[in-house]
Amino acid sequence: MKVNFTLIDNKVVIKLEGSLFVEDALLLRTKALAYFAEGHKNFLIDLSKVDYIDSSGLGVLVSLQKRALEHQGALQLHGLTGVVLELFELTRLNKIFEIV
Questions:
Q1: What is the CATH number of the domain that holds 90?
Q2: Which residue segment(s) compose the domain that 91 sits in?
Q3: How far apart are CA 37 and CA 51, in angstroms?
Q4: Rounded Cα–Cα distance for residues 39 and 45 (Å)
Q5: pLDDT tens-digit profile of 10-33?
Q6: Number of structural domains in the chain
Q7: What pTM was computed for the model?
Q8: Which of 7, 27, 36, 100 matches a 20 to 30 Å C-alpha distance to 73?
């Protein structure tokens, strides 16, 4: 999995590419928590090039969403398609996340 972090207008933009498995989820969490520690609280995660997310990946996304809300921030998901979109609909996480 490729992970790219950039700052755009005080928002941390995270672009993911490939499949989000346990190892990648831990890396994503660690890097995102470093941005929280620096005071950032608004995140946009681009999932348009993600073809699969396992339960650990979902858990990390939920954890980051919770942390953003605790800090009066927001976490938005962008580009959900195919199996990834179906997974969010099946688990009803599409009701929890702001999907743009």
A1: 3.30.750.24
A2: 2-99
A3: 29
A4: 18
A5: 999 999 999 999 999 999 999 999
A6: 1
A7: 0.94
A8: 27
